[in-house]
Write a structure and sequence with these properties.
With about 160 residues, the chain is mostly helical. It contains five helices and no strands.
């Protein structure tokens, strides 16, 4: 077979083609800019807040665990009792709109003052409620309540009265 050559001659109106390509290029650039703006907007308004919330949740959980560990190691409360008190503290915190870590820190002050069991949870509950209505920080209220109860005796002064 012999080599055959095909010759095609294209004639076009180059100025119309150039205008059409320029117009298409401009539209693609505008679309790209809009897509980039949407991406930045999502990063700023969605991804960043989610990352911050996740970081805050991790810190609060770590603070809660730290307080519960202090109760066990420094105060000397048994781990099974600490676990029960931790669950109670979480529930009370949720009920009063306070954080679990704030409740755990107050519980540390309460157990450090020598209160245990129902007496400790009563003081925690009263302290969380007092803090929820603006009477002070939960740990400060708990510290004051336990000081008063220890001074007057828990038989003479209960958690709510303190």
């Amino acid at each position: 077979m012999a080599d055959q050559k095909l010759r095609v001659i294209l004639e076009a109106q180059a100025d119309k083609l150039i205008k059409a390509l320029d117009k298409s290029g401009s539209k693609l650039q505008a679309f790209g800019a809009k897509t980039q703006a949407v991406g930045k907007n999502l990063s700023t308004k969605l991804t960043l807040p989610l990352a911050l919330a996740g970081g805050s949740a991790i810190k609060l959980a770590a603070d809660f665990d730290k307080s519960m560990t202090k109760i066990q190691s420094l105060v000397g409360v048994a781990s099974t009792d600490v676990a029960k008190m931790g669950e109670t503290a979480k529930q009370m915190a949720t009920d009063t709109g306070k954080s679990a870590s704030e409740a755990a820190e107050a519980l540390f002050f309460i157990t450090s003052a020598g209160l245990r069991g129902k007496e400790a949870t009563d003081v925690l509950n009263a302290s969380l409620k007092a803090a929820a209505v603006g009477l002070g920080e939960t740990a400060s209220v708990a510290d004051l309540a336990t000081s008063a109860m220890n001074a007057y005796g828990s038989a003479n002064l209960n958690a709510e009265a303190a």
